[in-house]
Amino acid sequence: MGAASRCTSCLCCPFKCLACGLFSCLCSILVSLLVIAGVLALVLYFIFRPHMIAATVDSASLATFTLSPTSALTYNLTVAMTVRNPNKRVGLYYDGVEALALYEGQRFGFAPLDPFYQGTEESRQLAPAFGGQQVLDGDVAPANFRSQQSAGAFDVEVKLNAKLRVKVWAFKVRGPRARISCPLSLPAPGAASPPAFKPVDCKVWF
Question: Considering only CA atoms, which of 61, 74, 54, 26 is closest in space to residue 188?
Fold first, then answer.
């Protein structure tokens, strides 16, 4: 009964049967392509084993860091940092690179950096510099500023953001957005006998 019904349906509407057949064929091809792509991605992952990039702040100094009664922060901060690509078979393109400086969670400095390419197992030195004036919001930041100024050191965070492109052989594919965070404790400007700066390892995530 069922077979006879399907035959009658195809005889009455052959275009409907053709459309159903084409749709079924396209679905099968799409599923096969997805499976092949998944297997290929898994094989490439086990071949290249991409590793997380590493970042270190090698030196940093505050030439100026003052806060006015109106919470206007005047600053001059220089940073020297190294970003390393530990991968043996994967090159990285860094696009839209930007460095940020924050105090008490508030951004006070911004420094765009030039895009660059990083070959396999290659290190790159970056030197973002921040200078200017920025008004801080709220009462917590001024209170903590006075406390840290009395202690002779300020807690500053430097961040680096970039859009990555991955190069494998001659192929280039869009990668994740890299976010680097470097918490620093820096001597207050004019501090007597400030301690030598010790390199700081940064946190990296995508």
Answer: 61
Q: How open is the CA angle 75-127-136, to the nearest 5 degrees?
A: 25
Whether 202 shows a pLDDT value over 50: the answer reads yes
pLDDT digits (tens, 9 = 90+) for 98-154: 999 999 999 999 999 999 999 999 999 999 999 999 999 988 788 999 999 999 999
Tokens of residue 129, six digits: 């510099």
The strand pairing partners of 177, in sequence order, are 163
pLDDT in tens, 28-87: 888 888 877 765 564 455 344 567 899 999 999 999 999 999 999 999 999 999 999 999
**Separation between Cα atoms, residue 194 and residue 152, nearest integer Å:** 9
Span 158-169, pLDDT tens digits? 999 999 999 888
Tokens of 91: 């090159």
Residue at token pair 């709220």:
138
Which has the closest alpha carbon to 159: 189, 122, 204? 204
| Cα–Cα nearest to 53, from 72, 14, 81 | 81
- Cα 66 from Cα 178, distance rounded (Å): 31
CA 198, 162, 141, 76 torsion-angle sign: positive
Q: Cα separation of 75 and 94, whole Å?
A: 28
Number of CB atoms found within 10 A of residue 117's CB:
14
